[in-house]
Design a protein that fits this description.
The chain is of the alpha+beta class. 52% of the residues lie in helices and 13% in strands.
């Protein structure tokens, strides 16, 4: 009605002409015949001209490819190739439309993970999202995109998390590990095409941390602390000691009841890994359970238990100095603690594994009870000092060289 007309590309081969619609329209008064493009007087002329130039280039590419391949660029051939190009472009566009942005993917991935993953794992995911939000606020970034995760971003995030927030390398490493979980999952699902995070420099820092364990004497000392006037502290102390002789995580304690006990053994499906473990009762554990008539007190929250354990450790007189080393990027920092300050729920599980290891119980058998899948992970629990290793070796030599000494004496 306004006099506008479709713009077509005219293709002629051996005297035969075919027209291809560009899907664009223009009023003839704005058409520059000599330049085969829109006149400058048309609003948005440069955008239209660029579009038409690219449209024409598609045909030139089809023709040049045909000539290079010694194929006749007939009208039918060019039309077929053009339709294939349009179809591929449409499929690519549809595929792009179905892709989730980084931040939308996080929401979907975490919600889906809630159905199949444990609460601690979900907590690590939400912690990562929270830290990224704080990072964005610090850097005045509105939104993070897949292409943002480059080595430059990695080093900037390191500066923010370690230098500005004061975290250590291990904590930073946990965050990077969680981020890589997101990026790998998105890569597998076709949402992320950025492979910069696969660079070896985009690494997960992990270093050995000085953790403590309680030897048999320490456990006895804790048992001897008089907590008769503090039911809460006594219950937490008793649960902790049970952990020292079962290797269970505190989250699994609520499973200890008459249904899980048969033939003097505890049978538990662990919450974190879902593994079934069978644990014989140590006499001390049996004595504690009998004191509670088979019904153990409820386990408090981790924070409450850890706070109470430190008080109990102080009452037990655990004042030995423990030096802890942590690295912040390249700076090694040394902190001195008293032993009671480092007692926590996980100390019980560590004590169980270390004491059995020192007694010569096979590592593979301890792993069956603790539920560890790899020896590498298990060995992180073994907290034996150099002097203790030397003493173990001395005892081993004494026991295994008796016959040799006898022979030499004869």
């Amino acid at each position: 009605k306004d006099g506008s007309t479709l713009i077509h590309l005219r293709f002629t081969h051996k005297g035969k002409t075919t027209y291809f619609s560009t899907s664009k329209t223009i009023h003839p008064t704005f058409w520059d015949q000599s330049r085969q493009c829109a006149k400058r007087s048309l609003k948005g002329h440069s955008t239209l001209c660029i579009y038409l130039s690219k449209f024409k280039q598609k045909f030139e590419d089809i023709i040049n490819k045909a000539i290079y391949s010694d194929v006749e660029p007939s009208r039918d051939y060019v039309r077929m190739q053009f339709e294939m190009t349009k179809k591929a472009a449409k499929e690519k566009q549809e595929k792009q439309a179905s892709k989730l942005s980084f931040e939308k993917f996080l929401v979907v991935y975490i919600e889906e993970s809630k159905r199949i993953k444990k609460k601690p794992t979900i907590r690590s995911y939400t912690d990562m999202v929270r830290i990224l939000e704080l990072y964005k606020k610090s850097r005045q970034i509105k939104i993070l995109h897949w292409q943002d995760f480059t080595m430059d971003w990695y080093y900037d995030f390191m500066d923010y998390y370690i230098d500005e927030r004061g975290a250590n390398n291990n904590t930073f490493g946990k965050m990077v590990k969680t981020l890589k979980t997101f990026l790998n999952a998105a890569l597998d699902q076709g949402h992320n095409e950025n492979l910069a995070f696969k660079d070896k420099r985009f690494k997960v820092y992990q270093e050995e941390v000085t953790h403590i364990y309680l030897n048999e004497g320490d456990i006895k000392t804790i048992l001897d602390v008089d907590l008769s006037k503090d039911d809460k502290a006594r219950a937490i102390r008793d649960l902790f000691v049970i952990g020292c002789y079962t290797g269970l995580r505190f989250g699994d304690f609520k499973q200890i009841n008459e249904k899980n006990i048969s033939n003097g053994r505890l049978r538990v499906k662990t919450q974190k890994t879902g593994k079934h473990v069978v644990i014989p009762f140590h006499p001390i554990v049996k004595s504690i359970i009998d004191n509670y008539k088979g019904i153990l007190p409820k386990a408090y929250s981790n924070n409450v238990i850890n706070k109470e354990l430190k008080k109990i450790g102080k009452l037990a007189g655990f004042f030995d100095s423990v030096i802890q080393f942590l690295t912040h990027v390249t700076k090694l920092e040394e902190t001195i603690y008293e032993k009671w300050q480092l007692i926590s729920t996980h100390c019980a599980r560590r004590s169980f594994a270390t004491n059995l290891f020192k007694q010569g119980f096979p590592s593979i058998s301890i792993m069956k009870i603790t539920g560890h899948k790899s020896e590498k992970t298990f060995m992180r629990y073994i907290k034996v000092t150099e002097d203790e290793v030397a003493s173990m070796l001395e005892q081993h030599w004494i026991e295994n060289t008796k016959e040799i000494v006898k022979l030499k004496t004869v």
